[in-house]
Amino acid sequence: MPTLRLLNTLTKTTEPFRPIDPGGRLVRFYSCGPTVYDYAHIGNFRSFLNADVLRRTLELLGFEVRHVMNITDVGHMTDDAAADGGGEDKMQVAARRLADAKKSGKLPPGVDIDPGDPYAIADFYADAFLEDARQLGLKVAEEAVEHPELMPRPTQFVKEMIDLVSRLIEGGHAYVAADGVVYFDVRSYPEYGRLSGNTLDSLRAGEGGRVSETNQAMKRH
Question: Which sign, positive or negative, has the C-alpha torsion 35, 38, 40, 43?
Answer without folding.
Answer: negative
